[in-house]
Each structure stands twice: as C-alpha cells, then as structure tokens.
Design a protein that fits this description.
two-stranded antiparallel ribbon, mainly alpha, 11 helices, 70% helix
Length: 325
Amino acid sequence: MMAMQEQPALCFPLLVNTSCRRTQRLPSVVALSYMLLSVISLITFTLNLLVIISISHFKELHTPTNLLLLSLAASDFLVGFLMLFQIFLLDGCWFFGDVMCVVDYILGYVITSASIGSMVLISVDRYVAICDPLHYPIKVTQIRVKMCVFLCWSASLVFNCLYFFESLKQPGKSNTCVGECMIVVAAGMTDLFFSFIGPLIVIVFLYVRVFVVAMSHARATRSHVGIVTLRGSAIKSSELKAARTLGVVVVVLIVCILPYFCITISKQDVSLNVSSAAFIICLFYFNSCLNPLIYAIFYPWFRKSIKLIVTLQILKPDSSQTSIM
C-alpha cells in the first residue's frame, strides 16, 4: 500500500527505486503555472516570428540596425521553443532522456549568449550612430553587420559546445535519479565574465555615452538651437528615438537576467530545487517575450508590418516594396 501511495509522486512510477520524485503542488497552482508559461511561450514564438518576417520581407527595413534586431529576434524566437522544455521541468521531471538534456542546456546557452552578443552589437551600432554620425554610413554597412552577426552566433556555438564537451561524452553522469536533468560544469569567474559581466560593462558604458549625447541634444532643442552637431554632422531625431527604444530593450534584458547571474555569482544555485531553478530560467527567457512588445510600442513600422502580415497583404506581388517607415 505504501508503494502504491508513493507512485503518483514519482516521475516514472514503474521505476520505484530509481525514479526522481515529482514536486508536489496544489492542482490549481500547477494548472495556472502551465497555462501561464504556455501562453508566454506561444506569444514569444509568434511575436518574434512576426519580427523576423517583417524585417526579412520588406526591403525598406533592410538596414544595419534592423539586421541586428533580426539576429536578436531569431534568438528570442528560439527561446520561445526552449521554454516548452522548461515548462515540463516545473514538476521536477525530465522525460526526454540524458542526451536531450545536454542538448537543451547547450541550445539554451548558445541562444542566450547570441542574444547578449546581439545586444552588444546593437549598443555599438547606436554608439556610432549617435556619437559619430558623420562616419556611421561608412563604418556600419550591411556586409560588416552580417559578418559580425555570423561571428557572434558561430563563437557562441563553438564556445558552448567546448564548454559542455565532457557532458556530451557522458550524458547523465551528474544525475542522481531517473528523470533528472542535471549538468555540473566548472563555471569559473572567467567564464562568467566573458558570458555576462564583460558584455554588460560594454553595453552600459556605450549607452551612458549615448545618453550623455542625447541629453545634450535635448538641451539644445529646448534652447531653440535647432539641431545638435557632433563632429560636424547633425544627429537625426530618428537615430535618437531608435537609441531610446533599444535602451529600453537593454534595461529590460538586465532586469530579466540579473536574478540568474546573481545566483550564479553567489554560488547559491546548489540550494535551489529543480522547479525553482526552472522558474528563474523562465524569467531569464521571459525577456524574449518582452522585446517584440517593446518594438510594437515604440516602432510604428512594426505595427504596420504586423497588419500587412496578418491580413496576408504580403502575398501580393511586389509587396516587399511597400513603404513601411
């Protein structure tokens, strides 16, 4: 009778002696958690797909800055897919095998590293556009941006595959029971610096410089000076607006990922149970849902392109030539 009573609390009831135990919660809490995270995953998946289609289809949107947004949207789109696996982990059970566990970890790190790398590139793009507008068209070209995006994703893939190489050779070696997805790697401060602290310092430094120039522009405008001239070239109001919008994106990113890295830095992750860790990772991933919502609020072209996509206007001949801006 005792064995029969314990079986419902196991990930694999037939493996009584080796199965992991499920995290016990109220049925209403379980249903609400699954529904909420499923909706967030669907929204993340759908909205970022709309961003990808918009920038890829409409030729007017083929600018260096939007190519960087496309890279960010691609990583956010994949995050929407990965969130489905984290939803299954909310009850403390992994049903997809040891190899898929390692693959899930690698994909998560590759995608988030590429996302942070794209944020760094966006910060550099805005810095050059605002602080050196005269040379921006020369320094920031589509070819150079495409090369930077390619290197960003390639470096993320190679680094994280090497990082999890031992886990790939022996998947499941860190698991203590069947149904667990646990990978232990020697994450030192060097890895943490290159994956988070270093990029964050670069992003903050560049946006502080952009903010100072933007404030100078605002003061000059209020003083009826007309335009701000920096190194002999006027700063366009559209560039300042883009900088403010992408600044909001950066702030939201920091807020969403800070809890995860604070726990990693303090080395308190070992004290978290599986479901709590899954919640923190989902918060990390939630940033990918917010980015396209920010675009919808601040970018009229995104709202217009959504309307054209939803109404299937993009299927018309020469729809890629439609004026969006």
